[in-house]
Amino acid sequence: MVALYQVMAIYHFGRRGVCLYGGGYVEQERKTKNWKLKMLEQVVFYIFGAVLVTSAGMVVTVRNPVHAALFLVLAFFCSAAIWLLLQAEFLAIVLVLVYVGAVMVLFLFVVMMLNINLAPLREGFAGFLPVGLFVAALMLTAMGLIVSSDHVLPGLPPAAAQPPIDAANTELLGKTLFTEYLYPFEIAGAILLVAIIAAISLTMRKPAAQRTPKPEKQVVVKRDTRVRLVNMESASPPEKGDSGGLSQRSQGGKQGDNSD
Amino acid sequence: MSITAEIVFLVPELALLILACLILVCDAFSTDPGKLLTYRLAQFSLVAVLLLVVYLYPDDAVSVFHQHFISDPLSAVLKVTICAVSIIVFSYSYDYFEERDTLQGEYFVLGLFAVLGMLIMASAYSMLTVYLGLELMSLSLYAMVAMHKGSGTASEAAIKYFVLGALASGILLYGISILYGASGTLVLPELAAHVSARTETDVLLVFGLVFVVVGIAFKLGAVPFHMWIPDVYEGSPTAVTLFLATAPKVAAFAMAVRLLVDGMEPLHIDWQGMLIILSVLSMAAGNIIAISQTNIKRMLAYSTIAHAGFLILGILPGMRLDVGYGYAGALFYVIVYAIMSLGAFGVVILLGRKDHESDRLEDFKGLAERSPWFAFIMLLLMFSLAGVPPFAGFWAKWFVIKEVVAIGHIWLAASAVIFSVIGAYYYLRIVKLMYFDQPEHMTEIKASRQMRMALSLNGLALLILGFIPGKLMDICTSVLGF
User: Fold this and answer.
1) What is the rounded distance in angstroms from the CA atom of residue A221 to the CA atom of residue B317?
2) Quick check: helix, strand or coil at residue B138?
3) Which of B221, B6, B255 has the alpha carbon at shortest distance from B133?
């Protein structure tokens, strides 16, 4: 449903040439004399919008989690295409590279590795359906009323300065990021650091009771710690003081170095 | 202003970031299982940041870094509170982890990053900075809750906290994106200027406002967005609960004030209505459900929800400085609440032992015989939480109600008083258990001298603040420009 509203909102603002989701509100005076081009743009928008809404719907309705993840990939891809239509090419490429390329692949790995039994999760589904439908209908009407109300449009902000036609979106974004948004950008860096610390501290440290091999101890193992040479005399006991020199007795004869 | 002149305002945050990274490295190389060095360094950095904030106390508001950061008296007061509270939290939690041998150095490192997030929220002047500060704080807190991996309840609490927290962040971000789309700016004063320049009502702005208020209510733990609080408070290790229940509340207050008062004061009439509903529901649900709890951590969780209702009540007046002191009452309230909550969870940590958490109400039976002094401290805390005069908690409620009456919501003030009286029952029940019931056992209370000292000072601070509330209130009102 969120996807549906995104499409509605993008269409609504996009129709007037205002890009909400791109690099701010770049009002584009689309002086397209060629109405055919304009119509083509609309057709492309509707195709991608329709595929986006359908695949977003499939994400929550299909039974197979792998299929759901793949539909999510499709949804991301279509949003990227819509962004491209709004001339936010950097965001479009980042969405494909980061979400489709990295995050969703990870998602698929996790889904395939965890053998989740979905049957118990679905048990109470019908019981919650009426409440869910009611809330969904309520949200749908409320949001629909607002997006389609006349009050929305006069409130749109004034046009920003038109960027030069040959300006590269990525370059402009980079410049803004390191001047105007320097402070938030650095905070985002700190957030990533916290994510790394959290991930490592949650996965690295094992409880003391858990028995795992310790490679750093295994590689420094010497023959003496594993093998004990015992000088055996078959007939008579050896002379005193002689045995210490010949036999290599490592005390205790450790065997279980890798199990502490 | 050149970047070097601007960076001076950022010195406390930068110092904390650098020190936290250094401590992370020190901790990785230290072989000490007691983590004493990490603990001392963490405490040192918090004290250093506290002193830096006091030293750089600004006389007037200056916004730097393209207005993403503001340095004003309000931010300084909030930062001092956050640092001071965190110092005490760290000293209590060191005791807790040391006794249980579950101390990980990352607890302090993540704690410092959470404090950094709170400092960023305290002086955030754009919606983006508010959100990023919030995320920095929340991410660290999720990890801290999950850190005790052996415990099933902690893992459950972490998952619940993470999922609901992420949902709340998403809702907040959705609201922010709508406000950005409607106004074309992320900076809060520019947003306020945009809103007040508007002649007709703008549905889109109010639409965004609803999501922002929902996000704030989630983070404060106001009804009906409170579901995570009892489970997370009960499931987490008590030391983490202690941290969750104190400093982040101050930061959430900062977030609410920055977004609603600094950013959307012209929409005052719209958010006031939403806050009234949230506060009445929170006070009702928190105080009534707390009565039926048998676990002290869960009871204090519901008490937090009730106090969140009071706090929201204090934000209601906004900047209506023509009739009263605006939200100065709420600032007073949040500072006092942080101290009270600190003490209450501190006593739970004090009573807990390695093999026994002592978080049931029965564990407080006959505490007066086991340890008269700490029973007295708990008595102070409970009286203060209930709002019995002359303790600090009474004055906190008094100032909030006074401001609410000043803006003309008499019935709201009356209902706040009624719910406080209902709430007094479960606080006073603890006092009854401690003084009039027989103890189940006479186990000696073991705690370090540092913990005993800190807890005693914590309890007595409420008594002293109760006798001289004027000093703190003067600071709170001067922050708003009186």
Assistant:
1) 71
2) helix
3) B255
A contact test, residue of B71, B140, B198 with most A CBs within 10 A: B140
pLDDT in tens, B353-364: 887 888 888 889
Partners of residue A202 in chain B, C-beta under 8 Å: 143, 146-147, 149
**What are the domain boundaries of chain B?**
3-479
Average pLDDT over residues B386-397: 92
A207 falls in which pLDDT band (50, 70, 90)? low
pLDDT digits (tens, 9 = 90+) for B34-49: 788 999 999 999 999 9
Residues paired with residue B187 on neighbouring β-strands, in sequence order: B126
Reported ipTM:
0.93
Q: What pTM does this model have?
A: 0.84
B308 three-class SS: helix
How far is Cα A2 from Cα A14, in angstroms, rounded to an integer?
17
- CB contacts of B185 in chain A (<8 Å) are 157
C-alpha closest to that of A50 among A86, A75, A85, A21: A75
The secondary structure element, H or E, covering residue A73 is helix A65-85
Distance CA B166, CA A188 (A): 16
Side-chain-side CA neighbours of A218 within 13 Å: the count stands at 7
Q: Please give the torsion angle defined by the CA atoms of residues B381, B382, B383 and B384, in that order, rounded to the nearest 10 degrees.
A: 50
Closest Cβ–Cβ partner in A13, A188, A201 for B143: A201
Look at residue A142 and tell me whether its pLDDT is greater than 60. yes
**pLDDT at residue B211, as a whole number:** 93
Q: d(Cα B43, Cα A92) in Å, to the nearest integer?
A: 45
Q: Is A202 close to B149, i.e. CB distance below 8 A? A: yes
Closest-CA residue to A186 (of B7, B174, B252): B7
Buried b (16+ CB within 10 A) or exposed e, B56-70: eebeeeebbbbbbbb
Q: How many CA atoms does the CB half-sphere of B105 hold within 13 Å?
A: 25
Interface of B with A in 80-109 (CB under 8 A): 104, 106, 109
